[in-house]
Amino acid sequence: MTDKTQKNINLKKATGAAVTTIIDNYIDVFLPSSDRVERSPLVKGNVRRPPLLAEHGFSILVEVIGDDISHRVLMDFGISNIGVPHNLNVLDIDIDTIEAFVISHGHHDHVGAIAEVLGGLSIKPRPVVVHPDVLISTRFRKLPDGKKIPIPGLKKGIIEETGNKVIDGRSPVLLASDYLLALGEIPRVNNFEKGMPSAYYEKDGEIYKDYIMDDKGIVLDVKGKGLVVISGCGHSGIINTIRHAQSITGVDKIYCVMGGFHLIGNIGETVIKRTIEEMEKINPEVIVPCHCTGLKAAQEFEKVFPKAFVLNASGTTIHL
Questions:
Q1: Share of the chain above pLDDT 70, in %
Q2: Which residues pair with 259 in a beta bridge?
Q3: Smallest Cα–Cα separation from 241: which of 254, 223, 226?
Q4: Alpha-carbon distance values, 245 to 13, 88, 229 (Å)
Q5: Average pLDDT score, the chain
Q6: Which of 85, 94, 172, 256 meets the CB 3.0–4.6 Å disulfide criterion with 228?
Q7: What stretch of H or E contains 201?
Q8: What CATH number labels 2-319?
Q9: Residue 67's pLDDT band (boundaries 50, 70, 90)?
């Protein structure tokens, strides 16, 4: 594992990859599988498996293959302390095979089961990539009527309490023997992705705008295919995230875009059209909207990208 901040980071080209959604907002046991998309089977042997859970949260397991060696990295932990551990068990995923962890940002729907998962490791310490702003404990949404909705986050010291190691995520961090890149802070460069305008935090009695600078994603480079860009919520803007990944890796071709695109609600829905227009220029082969993308946006992506679109659900594996 290395930490590099300069452009054109030497992200190694993987020979293959698979991304398994541990938990997402949606579940449907009748979704069909295909050559690229594998749905979790209902039975193991002749015994029906316990049901997978869905919740307003996100967690994915990335398995990347390089030099014939498989590496596993988990990003995010859902919103509850129940869903991710339960689904990991149903999916027969041994957490001790996971060599590193990434927190996409510090909102509660991404850190819910962190104590249970990290505390359950039998081999420690494992690296956990975390931006310092993940620990802001006074975040809230301010509604038009002035009402404040708290946004719980990560408890200070919880990662160390589980016996694992915090890696500063302000700058890009290479993981998995340099086959996976955790993006650092993502520049907000376009004129339409405005983040979460209702987000604020309190410090020393003063109220500040929260630009959610801890928002990050992870990136792979699959040999002969291009970059795989995965966001958590995409508060930085999914297009900003993709452009930043291209900039710091020096790779222009985008193979797959996956994750939360945060195109939900009054603000998010106003930029669906522009986001799709920009995505058409990028033209990924695979598009997997997740979590906070929103139903309206997901439907528009399916209309515009019928061949690339994948309807995600808890337990889905995308083979790349």
A1: 98
A2: 231, 289
A3: 254
A4: 14, 29, 7
A5: 95
A6: 256
A7: strand 199-203
A8: 3.60.15.10
A9: confident
